[in-house]
Design goal:
- The chain has 8 helices and 11 strands.
- It is of the alpha/beta class.
- Helix 2 packs parallel to helix 3 and helix 6 crosses helix 8.
- The chain is globular.
- The two termini are 21 Å apart.
Length: 218
């Protein structure tokens, strides 16, 4: 899962980035509203964690920009504002959830997972595609009831393909989803990850178009 965290407090940024990366998430960050808006509207993320009070542009302005650009990425507002009117404003502007500071990392992670689960599986904690079952909460995959041992990247790639089922995804889209911008990957890493995933879940599920990308056909 790929997250964007827009927060101007360096300590919170460091805490959240470290925590989510330890759980296997890919995380990008911005410390002001202008950079945050640019990333949110130009790149693809699974969930955005958005502070309200930011330099240059505040969280409400970023939410407005996200909605204006018809970007469906679910957003959690993370802010010191806790008045009911503030929560109502955030939610009616387009936020999907709201957490007040101080907050519990475990609760935030649970809310992130809930939003992601809703976006890929209509609220269910399991996804079934032919003989493959994915338990999003447990991060477990099975085939005909037998557990499969996927690497973290294989699991994230499978979820990304599921989220974009029946659509063609390019190598660039996969790289942006599974790896941070600062991470260097060899040109064949994606192909190897696809190859290993197909061996485990079945070659027929994932089709390839030479030079264009891959498709999970449902």
């Amino acid at each position: 899962m790929k997250l964007l965290i827009i927060e101007d407090d360096e300590n919170i940024i460091s805490f959240l980035k470290r925590g989510f990366e330890e759980e296997g998430y890919t995380v990008e960050t911005a410390t002001d509203g202008e950079d945050g808006e640019y990333l949110a509207t130009q790149n693809s993320y699974d969930v955005i964690i958005l502070d309200w009070m930011l330099p240059y542009k505040n969280g409400i302005e970023i939410l407005q920009s996200i909605k204006k650009n018809n970007i469906p990425t679910p957003t959690i507002m993370l802010t010191a504002k806790s008045e009911i009117d503030d929560k109502v404003l955030g939610l009616t502007t387009g936020a999907d959830d709201y957490m007040s500071k101080p907050f519990s990392f475990k609760e935030l992670q649970a809310r992130v997972l809930a939003l992601y689960r809703r976006s890929v599986s209509l609220g269910n904690n399991t996804i079934t595609i032919q003989d493959i079952t994915i338990d999003i909460d447990k991060k477990e995959v099975s085939k005909n009831g037998e557990p499969l041992k996927l690497t973290q990247k294989e699991y994230e790639l499978l979820l990304f393909l599921v989220k974009n089922k029946n659509a063609l995804v390019s190598n660039q889209m996969i790289q942006e989803q599974l790896w941070n911008e600062e991470e260097f990957i060899n040109s064949n890493v994606i192909q190897v990850t696809i190859y290993n995933l197909r061996k485990k879940i079945g070659k027929d599920l994932i089709s390839s178009s030479r030079g264009l990308g891959y498709r999970l056909e449902v």
